[in-house]
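In the laboratory, one determines a bound structure by crystallizing the protein with its ligand and collecting diffraction data. In a computational setting the workflow is compressed into a single prediction: the sequence and the ligand go in, and a structural description comes out. We illustrate the idea with adenosine-5'-triphosphate.
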Amino acid sequence: MSKLKIAVQKSGRLHDDSMKLLSDVGISIDNGKDQLKASAKNFPLEVFYLRNGDIPQYLRDGVVDAAIIGENILVEKGNDISVVEKLGFSTCKVSIAVPKSFKYKSFKDLEGKRIATSYPNTVNQFLEKNKISAQLHIINGSVEIAPNIGLADAIVDIVSSGSTLFKNNLKEVEVLLKSEAVLAASPLISASDEAILKRLQFRFQSVLKGRQSKYVLLNAPNDKLDKIISVLPGMRSPTVLPLAQEGWSSIHSVITKNEFWDVIDDLKANGAEGILVCPIENMVV
Ligand SMILES: Nc1ncnc2c1ncn2[C@@H]1O[C@H](COP(=O)(O)OP(=O)(O)OP(=O)(O)O)[C@@H](O)[C@H]1O
Ligand SMILES: O=P(O)(O)OC[C@H]1O[C@H](OP(=O)(O)OP(=O)(O)O)[C@H](O)[C@@H]1O
Ligand SMILES: [Mg+2]
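The predicted complex, in structure-token form:
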């Protein structure tokens, strides 16, 4: 039987979350990451541990059928590769930053300047679109140090919390793109492997939806039910069950993590008691 070959970062920021997602969808992998590849025990999947930056080429050549990769690497090196599903972790930006002392007004101030980056294609796209001519210095790491050692006037690199920029006395001035980990597919994937990829994607979607949601249970007097139901959206409508105590009900519903605290405040204000909030492992809708 055919197996889907999936690339996962060997080590780095994507590795642990990628392996956790595979484990959360019930797939157990035989070997650790010291092996270059490992088979799943209970799903037709083979995991290849590779460098994030090398994965677009492996996808393009059909060496792997799919990958978990940073979207920013696809923008940089894999415009021809399709994103199947956004995965919600490793969120970051690719931004232009300049020394705090640089009186930056607009991207026109970059004309004729030296820009250090590990993402030359992303930078060139931006420069060409804005008709700016600048000199690129391509370096593989510690890009934020470049202005301080006189190598560049500006940098383009990944920004997440902003603390690396802060420590290096830099400020973010333009966001070129926003990125997160994605599930990507090879343009050469076979029909049978695509069918496996669809099954994997379906499992990813249900775990990711579950991660974004909470299951809420609460008790309320029956005369408050209408008010409470109006602040609980639920998947279809909330479940209402009678309690053993006369005149009281238990209400069950699902809410998203974003609206969580606002909804809890509203529930309390409307007379809810004994509110329980539980994580959801999978959500199949
Ligand atoms: N500080 C950060 N916060 C959030 N996400 C990040 C951060 N830095 C990088 N990422 C995301 O994680 C991906 C992997 O980053 P990491 O630094 O581990 O590896 P890399 O240098 O891109 O790749 P590799 O060495 O495997 O080729 C990046 O492509 C980006 O999408
Ligand atoms: O805005 P922040 O939260 O500070 O994150 C941004 C930093 O994180 C990444 O580096 P990483 O720590 O992955 O080190 P690396 O250069 O070895 O990849 C990136 O290259 C930035 O330097
Ligand atoms: Mg990094």
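Residues 111 and 132 are 5 Å apart (CA to CA). Keep in mind that any predicted model is a hypothesis to be tested, not a measurement.
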